[in-house]
Write a structure and sequence with these properties.
Strand content: 5-15%
Structural class: mainly alpha
Distance between the termini: 56 Å
Largest sheet: 2 strands, antiparallel
Order of helices and strands: EEHHHHHH
Number of domains: 2
């Protein structure tokens, strides 16, 4: 069922909501109302990506190795993770910054920060 939802950002957006019960539909509508619209979420992601790139701009990061798709995905992961670690552990990211394998970044995208830093220390 097509519904028009006013998101928390104030924008209206059309959604196709398919549920079995009226209660599920109401829950889905309420959940969507608590979220920002797709355009606002995309803008927020772009702003965060720009802030992350600015946070690691002072580091000379070597190019990643792997397929084109791996490199594109891993570059996003590496930028997000290094920006977060620069803010919390600026002196300890040299080993991570030297990691050039795109597959490694993808495989470790959900690894906790401490374990991530420890894994680069054990390799070095």
């Amino acid at each position: 069922m097509k519904r028009t939802i006013r998101h928390r950002c104030g924008h209206l957006q059309h959604h196709d909501i398919f549920t079995f019960t009226a209660a599920d539909q109401t829950r889905t509508e309420l959940r969507l109302e608590r979220q920002r619209c797709a355009d606002c979420m995309a803008t927020a992601r772009a702003e965060q990506a720009a802030a992350d790139r600015a946070a690691i701009a002072g580091y000379a990061l070597p190019p990643l190795t792997g397929s084109a798709r791996q490199v594109a995905w891993a570059d996003t992961i590496r930028t997000e993770r290094l920006a977060k670690l620069v803010r919390s552990h600026p002196a300890r990211i040299a080993g991570l910054a030297a990691q050039v394998d795109a597959k490694w970044w993808i495989d470790h995208r959900r690894t906790p920060d401490d374990a991530l830093m420890q894994s680069t220390l054990s390799v070095a």
